[in-house]
Amino acid sequence: MKLKIIIVLILSVFTLFSCASEETKSEDNQLAIDSGTGDEGITTDIIIFNAGTNDGLIADHQGRCDAEKVSQNIIGDNVAPFISTDSKAIMDVIPVEYGNQPVKGPNGTIISNDWNSLWSGSIVNDLSTAGAIPFGTNYWWSGSKDNGTVDSKKCFNWTDGSSGYEGVYGDANQMDSSWIFNFPSYNCNFNSYYILCTAW
């Protein structure tokens, strides 16, 4: 009789411990999801799209991206200019926790398997194929080196559209490093280059 009571007590303690352990594990998993660090964390695609053409004097780039995101029905809760400036490199316009998310164009075509791979020297599909820039047009202002850092040539930080300054640009039809860093840089009075945005 005493043996049966002892066995029942042991089983009860084991069951109680198992339930507590599963509850803790469930809470840990939920915390990981909420903080974007678990396997089921961030699942947002990053979209690159254009906000029209401009010379090197780019006024209200953020405002144009905001408007085009709505106009083009681009997904994502956040939007930012896809360009390097004195204050921020193009590789840093997306928060670091989104670095492993896929990058696509507006038509759903993959540009890069993840944000971090954009700066590896090549991309999976060119920007025109992905619908970020229309076919038949080639260039967009980047102000960036191919590794995603800031280049010195960016039209006096995008405040001058004259021939007195130069800006680095990318070729929308290329998948090697010239997709973002083409050579040579052009005068900032060229007004047919696209400005790009990114949403996530």
Word description of this protein:
A hairpin with a 5-residue loop joins strand 3 and strand 4 (110-112). With 200 residues, the chain is α+β, with helices and mostly antiparallel strands. Residues 1-40 have low confidence and may be disordered. It has two domains: 1-41, no CATH class; 46-199, Mannose-Binding Protein A, Chain A (Roll), CATH 3.10.100. The termini are far apart. A five-stranded mixed beta sheet has the order 2-9-1-3-4. A two-stranded antiparallel ribbon has the order 5-7. Strands 6-8 form a two-stranded antiparallel ribbon. It contains three helices and nine strands; from the N terminus they run H-E-H-E-E-E-E-H-E-E-E-E. The longest helix has 34 residues, at 2-35.
List the main descriptive attributes of the protein structure presented here.
single chain, 200 residues, alpha+beta, Mannose-Binding Protein A, Chain A, 2 domains, two-stranded antiparallel ribbon, 9 strands, 17% strand, disordered N terminus
